[in-house]
Amino acid sequence: MRPAAKRRGYRSAKRDSAAEKTRARIIAAANRQLRSAKGLRSLSLESVAAQAGVTRLTVYNQFGSRRGLLEAVFDDVAFRGGLYRLPAAMAEKDPRVALLRLVTIFCEFWYFNRRMLGQIIGAGVADPRLERAIRERNERRRKLITAILKRLEAADRVSPAVFEEAVDVLFVLTGHAVFSGLADKGRSVGTVCRLVQALAIRALDGLHLVV
Q1: Could you tell me how far CA 72 lies from the centroid of its own chain?
Q2: Considering its fold, how many domains does the chain have in total?
Q3: Tens-place pLDDT, residues 101-140
Q4: Residue 96, in any domain of the structure
Q5: What's residue 211's pLDDT?
Q6: How far, in Å, are 92, 112, 156, 190 from residue 195 at the CA level?
Q7: Is residue 72, in this structure, part of any structural domain at all?
Q8: Which domain holds residue 32?
């Protein structure tokens, strides 16, 4: 009986591996479609299935809906776009350095994916569930900003009286709309990053914070 148990475990591992590879292939296919000339307009479970070389049912079983597929693409792009670097940035001893690194990470993330992510964010306008999923992911950024400002507050470098305003301002400055608007004028990623970093510091200064 023991050999049989091992064979079942081996088959299960193989199935899990195959399912993960299939999932990755589907996400890659959706990513390519979003980056194509037609972009989001052409994206459907059927079109992605055809491009990935699987059935529509396979895509449905993996993601449940077009919205679920878009969420998966968003998360995949987030990781490959460098957001995995956030824990290291948050571990910086100097919270001011942590803030500047956070700006850099999000700047590079939004910059290199701005058109495709803009399509996904735009789709959320017509899909309340997708919009909620996007908002939840954005709120993670707000939590990081809040954590950094709490460290500055503890060091008497942020006034408690304007703490919430500071969080809100930095949340807006590190969002997709600001980066996309600056980058669409033909500026390089380095230029955009420096601009937003300067705006972040000036915003804190304007709120009478000592940084």
Answers
A1: 11
A2: 2
A3: 999 999 999 988 888 888 888 888 888 888 888 899 899 9
A4: yes
A5: 52
A6: 22, 16, 26, 9
A7: no
A8: 2-64
